[in-house]
Design a protein that fits this description.
It contains 2 helices and no strands. It is mainly alpha-helical. The radius of gyration is 28 Å and the shape is elongated. The chain has a domain at 1-46. The longest helix is centred in the first third of the chain and has 33 residues, at 3-35.
Length: 75
């Protein structure tokens, strides 16, 4: 068996194994999600669930209390 045939076989087998593992993990994910109860998001109608909306051009002032309040009254 030549080196080219051996490397081609290794590449083909690794590709097939990767596809089979991807399909298997997808079905395992779907089975796990099917068993979970759906999340109740009825109180967050129209509001972002995970992110805070940022508007460009709006500057917000960030105050570092550790740097501004030294405890001696001087700022």
């Amino acid at each position: 068996m030549s080196v080219n045939a051996l490397l081609s076989t290794v590449i083909l087998v690794s590709f097939i194994v990767t596809v089979v593992l991807a399909i298997g993990s997808y079905f395992a994910y779907k089975m796990r999600e099917r068993g979970r109860a759906p999340a109740d998001r009825s109180d967050a109608v129209g509001d972002p669930v995970f992110f805070e909306r940022v508007y460009p051009g709006v500057a917000s002032r960030v105050v570092d209390h550790a740097a501004t309040d030294r405890g001696d009254g001087a700022r």
